Amino acid sequence: MSIGEMLAATVPMARTLNLQFLETTPDKAVVALPDQSEYHNHVGGPHAGAMFTLGESASGAIVLAAFGDQLSRAVPLAVSAEISYKKLAMGAVTATATLGRPAAEVVAELDAGERPEFPVAIEIQRGDGAVTGEMTVVWTLRPNG
Fold first, then answer.
1. Distance separating alpha carbons of residues 36 and 91, to the nearest angstrom
2. Are 127 and 92 a contacting pair, CB within 8 Å?
3. Which of 10, 24, 34, 112 is deepest in the core (most CB within 10 A)?
4. For 129, phi and psi rounded to 5 degrees?
5. How far apart are CA 125 and CA 13, in angstroms?
6. Model pLDDT for residues 16-28, shown as the tens digit of each residue
7. Containing domain of residue 126, as a range?
8. Beta bridge mates, 94
9. Which residues fall within 8 angstroms of residue 143, CB to CB, at 6 or more apart?
10. Interatomic CA distance for residues 124 and 114, integer angstroms
11. What is the tally of structural domains in the chain?
């Protein structure tokens, strides 16, 4: 099962919005939100909440790709999130997530008995390539037990 399939199976909101996991690697996650009228706002574009969920889902996908081998000893949890809406989004939008710290550095903190925190940067673009939103989600790996 791919990371996208796993997220769709375990996170009902990802299924609800019909998110499409286009690319998921430890270096980059790309997730698309199709244009769906039931998730539009008052001006006919994707609702802010749908775009937030898109960005958070992309961040979760890269966290699973980068740290999936740590799941037996730690649980990834979102700590905080911030989003800026830059331009009007219309039609389908795509979120691209990248890790803000090297994965090896985060794992080294976990190895040292710490609870590491790390940012994930997300850029949301509309079909013409214009950046409509920027988001940062801070994640932690909470050690089990």
1. 8
2. yes
3. 24
4. 90, -10
5. 20
6. 999 999 999 999 9
7. 3-143
8. 32, 125
9. 73, 74, 110, 113, 115
10. 32
11. 1
Give the pLDDT confidence of 44-97 residue by residue, as tens digits.
999 999 999 999 999 999 999 999 999 999 999 999 999 999 999 999 999 999
Dist. CA 50–CA 48, nearest whole Å = 5
Indicate the angle between helix axes 48-67 and 3-10, nearest 10 degrees: 130
The one-letter code for the residue type at 28 is: K
* Helix or strand (DSSP H, E) at 76: strand 74-85
User: Considering Cα of 123, then 3, then 52, then 138, what sign does the dihedral take?
Assistant: negative
Per-residue tokens: 43:
């001006």
pLDDT digits (tens, 9 = 90+) for 91-104: 999 999 999 999 99
Rounded CA-CA distance 99/43 in Å is 32
Q: What is the CATH number of the domain that holds 78?
A: 3.10.129.10
> How far, in Å, CA of 40 to CA of 75, rounded?
33
Rounded CA separation 55/30 (Å): 9
Sheet holding 74-85, edge to edge: 20-24, 29-33, 93-99, 117-126, 131-143, 74-85
Q: What single-letter amino acid sits at 46?
A: P
Query: In this structure, what token pair is assigned to residue 9?
Result: 């199976």
